[in-house]
Structure of Coenzyme PQQ synthesis protein B:
Amino acid sequence: MRVVILGSAAGGGLPQWNCRCPICTLARSEPDRVRPRTQSSIAVSADGSDWLLINASPDIRQQLFDNAQMHPREGLRHSPIRAVLLTNGDVDHVAGLLTLREGQPYALYGTRGILDSVNANRVFDVMAEGVVERQAIGMDEPFEPLPGLTVTLFPVPGKVPLWLEDETMEIGAETETTVGALIEAGGRRLAYIPGCARVTDGLRRRIAGVDALLFDGTVLHDDDMIRAGVGTKTGWRMGHVPMRGENGSIDALAAVEIGHRIFVHINNTNPVLVEGSPERADVEAAGWTVAHDGLNLSL
């Protein structure tokens, strides 16, 4: 199985277009210390030829340009992307669908709840019927988006997308609006969980023994954005478990047998983004890799 991390940042990317926090400032002035990153997305292939795109970032055009595996290879129009899977309906995971509208056939997968949120917005009708086949997938029902690649979706604690929040919103509920994906090919297993509000016993059992885990790294501490002075929301309020602190993911997953441990979906205020920082050294000492755009895995 081959995996390409197309985008490793949370919503807004790094540097965020309107942000002058210390980390965004370093990303502009000293990119060797803070690598710029695009918004969250990965691609997975069983054979290195046909690819499943998981989440369609607003930065998808640049991501496809930056990774030669994703370039057209034959005829006047072609794409190696045969299918797209959504793990939630967040803007930073669905807006890129509008870029993938050039009459290129592919299958679009997601839970019924996620696809309903997309289908309810008519702007996504630019993905014409008969060109993009939308397929709802049930929880714990393995399916093959590509030959040789099996995916099983499972619920993780989360919340509805920001643009669907109302007074009934519940944080931490396990529903079909925020899911993880267990991906299998050639006897190898990858778990992709870019959004998760807390680590539960069920989640630990679900991912035990995987060859690689790509996990929500939005914030280092629950109050990252408050400390940076750029927001008032905690990680929990945004539906993201912190790396460190009470119930942090590093300690919560420490006893779970996992091959590669990689943080993805990293917010621009997270200090682990700074190369050589004490915060980066801490998470690396705990056995985790901080993802960057273009990181390739062969499992």
The radius of gyration is 18 Å.
